[in-house]
Design a protein that fits this description.
This protein has 450 residues and is of the alpha/beta class. Helix content is 39%, strand content 23%. The chain is elongated, with a radius of gyration of 24 Å. The strands form 4 sheets. Strands 1, 2, 3, 6, 7, 8, 15, 17 and 18 form a 9-stranded mixed beta sheet that branches. Strands 10, 11, 12, 13, 14 and 19 form a 6-stranded antiparallel beta sheet that branches. Strands 4-5 form a two-stranded antiparallel ribbon. Helix 1 (2-24) packs across helix 4 (116-130), helix 4 (116-130) packs across helix 12 and helix 10 runs antiparallel to helix 12.
Length: 450
């Protein structure tokens, strides 16, 4: 009993030190978050964001590996303990194209309307605390502070161009990092997402997966008023394709959570010229692979039908997107870490959402198919995500509590011989090996023209 009391006293002391260190660097962490928030960049273009993360990490004396999947970076703590176990704290670099947001970056038209800047603030805050020598020595394993690119799956044509140039193979940042082996030295992961409200929350539901498509209609230009009969209107063909797709909606089962949401990125060149090229981008989402394949086939049929109706040529390029996320019950140690971080000022909630599926997607699911990943959410946000009314209203919760949950969770997983981290890693049953994952993703790549 006396020995247990001493261990608990020491653990409480270390956790207090972690909290005190983060609190003493509060302004530095918030200023870092504000800087990233107002200088947002899009996926695979996050060069300045990555540079700031790398510079901050090096100032802490951490070894850094950069240029991973173009802009990704890993900062290492306790490399001498990597053979014990390796824990990654994940923060995402990219933002969204939201040009009318209050904090839009005018140079990139990007804004952090999904809270990725809060993730980065959280992991650099955790890095400050965990890299303190008196804390680092109590961690019986390696910690990797992992800044990852391109979680938001947009600008599909741009990403396909990167692929043609040999710079990437997959559109999702974590997918690409898995492929190049950047997760090979990691045993388990901790991730974060921002949320509305004023709590720290652990979700237990799942998310959709998807494939991406770029559809190009090739028609024939002609004078739109003087000789339209000589042309083939690619925009009209695309309109028929979109209409045909809409008629498929009643064939999707509610339980598969299918979402298909195309945009037209090119609709023609001049108003007085019959459009000879139209480009559509879409994601085809569902909660399981069979439903994704079914919806993707129906999507192709609809768009090819539009071309057949008017005599246009249709080219469809399909790329693998993200796998569905896997339901995950929160680890008890992480919940306790969140309670300590919240300090009674904020609620800590385990969502009653088992069996639910979000229509959205994240490449966290791809990592989950290979390695254990735990995710927590912190509030402090008002407005809609992915929208211009997204607003940070509580920086303490959004940034500082996030840093504390990251840091305290890392300590709890890696203390006492990293017994909790090793238990999680040993018990995990992956759906794929890395090699099988890459083979599966490659099988989803195809290009058809009719």
């Amino acid at each position: 009993m006396e020995m247990d009391t001493e261990i608990n006293t020491k653990a409480n002391s270390i956790e207090k030190q972690i909290i005190d260190i983060i609190d003493s660097h509060r302004d530095e962490i918030i200023n870092f978050a504000r800087d990233i928030y107002s200088h947002a960049e899009l996926g695979y273009k996050e060069f300045e964001t990555s540079r700031k993360f790398v510079e901050f990490s090096r100032k802490l004396g951490l070894t850094v590996k950069e240029g991973l999947a173009i802009t990704g970076a890993k900062a290492y703590l306790n490399q001498d303990k990597k053979d014990e176990i390796s824990l990654a704290l994940i923060g995402e670099l990219d933002a969204l194209r939201i040009p009318n947001h209050a904090y839009v970056n005018p140079e990139t038209q990007a804004a952090h309307c999904c809270g990725h800047h809060a993730q980065l603030a959280g992991i650099i805050g955790a890095a400050i605390a965990l890299s303190a020598p008196e804390i680092a020595q109590e961690l019986d394993g390696q910690v990797v502070f992992f800044a990852v690119p391109a979680e938001e799956y947009g600008e599909i044509e741009f990403k396909n161009q990167l692929r043609e140039e040999g710079k990437i193979k997959y559109g999702g940042g974590k997918c690409e990092l898995i492929r190049i082996g950047a997760f090979d030295d990691i045993d388990l992961n901790l991730a974060h997402h921002s949320a509305n409200g004023n709590a720290v929350t652990f979700k237990q539901g799942a998310n959709n997966g998807f494939v991406s498509k770029v559809i190009k209609y090739h028609g024939k230009a002609a004078h739109a008023a003087g000789s339209p009969q000589l042309g083939i209107n690619a925009l009209n063909a695309a309109s028929i394709g979109l209409t045909a797709l809409a008629y498929h909606r009643e064939t999707f089962r509610d339980s598969d959570h299918v979402r298909i949401h195309p945009i037209v990125t090119k609709g023609g060149n001049l108003v007085n010229v019959v459009p000879d090229e139209v480009v559509i981008e879409t994601l085809v989402r569902a909660s399981n692979q069979d439903a994704i394949v079914d919806a993707a086939e129906k999507t192709d049929r609809a768009f090819f039908a539009g071309g057949a109706a008017l005599g246009a040529t249709v080219e469809i390029e399909t790329m693998p997107g993200y796998l569905p996320t896997l339901p995950q019950e929160p680890d008890a140690e992480l919940v306790e870490a969140a309670k300590i971080a919240a300090d009674g000022k904020y609620a800590v909630e385990i969502a009653d959402d088992k069996g639910s599926v979000s229509g959205g997607s994240t490449d966290v699911g791809d990592v989950q198919h290979i390695l254990p990943v735990y995710t927590f959410q912190t509030g402090g946000i008002e407005g809609n995500f992915h929208s211009a009314d997204f607003k940070v209203v509580d920086e303490e919760l959004a940034y500082i509590v996030t840093a504390k949950v990251f840091a305290l969770s890392a300590y709890r997983l890696l203390r006492d011989g990293a017994k909790e981290a090793k238990r999680i890693a040993a018990a995990y049953q992956p759906k794929f090996t890395k090699e099988a994952y890459v083979a599966f993703m490659d099988s989803m790549i195809k290009k058809e023209c009719r």
